[in-house]
Specification:
heterodimer, A: 203 residues, alpha+beta, two-stranded antiparallel ribbon, elongated, B: 286 residues, mainly alpha, globular
Chain lengths: 203, 286
């Protein structure tokens, strides 16, 4: 490539990256907003509003639960939202390590906290913002509860492995949903963009 | 290269330093070297003429972009391409062609995606933004959406996100006037973006040493790009993208296109004014 034509490398790189992005959108459900293909502001499915739904079996009954933001780890959660086709299998695998429970929502009401205890306050806000689903992960539940005297007790979120015998539910499938706007009826609904059956453990 | 202070390439290189210092990658791996390199360029201004400087810049920025690539915005990619262009192009003419082609391809791809996704042409996307995105709240208020409706829309949107992802559909409050404006705005955006993409790509081919023999009726490309910036960024205040487009715009200007160059510079400066809370002010006045 001569000195005068070296600039051609730039548009060629752009087209190559954009081609990869188109392939990833088609094959791995990458949001058009990401990946260097310049699909931003073209669809309501920006990736930010994608939701991860777990299909769970509890005592023989099927439930659907919204996976709280940041679980099982923030990077994987984000990667699944943007590129589910590639990262959903890893998430489904990791979800097998989560323990589930069916707590009472009322136990999650905000408590009055000792002033100045910012760590507890931050943990409480996290819990409050994540308590959005009838079924919640044990890791979230362990963050706040009332003791036998009715006082607020906080356990700051921790990464220690959960006890396997605490499992009372198992994940059957994991799906990713994206919002779609219909201008004629002015309604928003979610549609499934990716789904995978969770790997089941051998007995 | 001409050594003149107001030479397009020099000007674009200085604008690039400012762009990366303020709106570069926030990851430490590129933020720290970026600040060091920009500081060096301030102390030793002649260094921006060296390709090695831009190569180091590109490597540092690329290394910092890699860990966050999956969530990176498209203009971060474009910023990396621009650094690479400055690193490999040895003449002002080559830099101009690279910048011109980058603008052309970026806008062509943006137009293609807007057509392919199917939510832009009928106004769905812009209507969604107008009803949900706080940046559009002032515009929505001007088009008949009340503050109560906006609050109800936001609440409904949050509700469907946390409770009705699987089965629910939420109806948002709107007005016929807003729908009409958003649909018209969608078409206008498509036309302008397609025009910019076409004009810049044709301009690249016309002036390329390896390209065809396109006749020059392409001077209006600069006006179209400047108009796009004034039309888009007061609402969607992505300052980094606007600054990058202005920088590329300056870099690709011909020696005779002095007015266009000043147009880009004024837009570059005005983008900061776009970040003032105009939407909230408008909403307050209404």
């Amino acid at each position: 490539m001569s000195r005068r034509t070296r600039w051609v490398a730039i548009p060629l790189i752009m087209i190559a990256v954009a081609s990869i992005q188109v392939y990833r959108v088609a094959a791995f459900q990458l949001t058009p907003w990401k990946g260097g293909g310049f699909g931003m502001f073209s669809t309501t499915d920006s990736g930010l509003d994608r939701k991860i739904i777990l299909e769970i079996e509890v005592a023989g009954l099927h439930h659907f639960a919204l996976l709280p933001t940041g679980l099982p780890d923030p990077e994987l959660h984000k990667a699944v939202r943007y590129l589910p086709g590639l990262y959903l299998p890893a998430l489904a695998q990791r979800c097998q390590d989560l323990a589930f429970s069916t707590p009472q929502i009322e136990a999650m009401q905000p408590f009055s906290l000792a002033a100045g205890n910012q760590e507890i306050e931050a943990a409480m806000k996290t819990v409050a913002s994540e308590c959005v689903s009838p079924l919640m992960t044990a890791r979230t539940i362990r963050a706040a509860y009332r003791n036998e005297f009715g006082q607020a007790q906080i356990i700051v979120l921790q990464d220690s492995p959960l006890r396997r015998d605490s499992l009372c539910a198992r994940v059957l499938a994991v799906s990713v949903y994206a919002p779609v706007m219909d201008a004629s009826s002015c309604t928003i609904r979610f549609r499934c963009v990716a789904r995978i059956d969770a790997p089941q453990e051998k007995a | 290269m001409h050594p003149g202070r107001w030479h397009p390439t020099r000007m674009a290189q200085r604008m690039t330093c400012l762009l990366f210092a303020l709106y570069g990658n926030s990851h430490w791996a590129s933020r720290v070297p970026t600040i060091i390199l920009v500081a060096y360029a301030i102390v030793r201004p002649h260094v921006i003429r060296r390709q090695a400087f831009w190569l180091v810049f590109a490597v540092a920025f690329g290394l910092g972009l890699w860990p966050v690539l999956i969530g990176a915005d498209n203009h971060k990619y474009l910023m990396l391409y621009w650094l690479l262009a400055l690193a490999i192009c040895q003449t002002s003419g080559s830099v101009a062609l690279a910048a011109r082609s980058m603008i052309g391809i970026a806008f062509a791809l943006a137009t293609a995606w807007k057509l392919a996704c199917g939510q832009f042409f009928d106004g769905s996307f812009l209507l969604h933004e107008a009803l949900i995105d706080p940046r559009f709240s002032g515009l929505a208020r001007a088009l008949g959406i009340t503050a109560e409706t906006q609050a109800a829309n936001l609440l409904a949107w949050r509700q469907v996100q946390v409770h009705d992802v699987l089965s629910g559909a939420v109806e948002l409050g709107s007005t016929a006037q807003l729908r009409l404006v958003m649909t018209a705005g969608s078409w206008l955006t498509l036309v302008v973006e397609a025009a910019i993409g076409s004009l810049f790509m044709l301009a690249t081919l016309r002036s390329s040493p390896i390209g065809g023999k396109w006749e020059s009726v392409l001077a209006c490309r600069n006006g179209a790009l400047i108009a796009f910036c004034w039309m888009t960024y007061p609402i969607a205040t992505v300052v980094g993208f606007s600054w990058l487009l202005c920088t590329l715009g300056v870099a690709q200007c011909g020696a005779a296109e002095v007015k266009s160059r000043y147009g880009y510079l004024v837009t570059f400066a005005a983008t900061q004014l776009f970040t003032l809370p105009w939407s909230q002010m408008l909403a307050y006045l209404i």
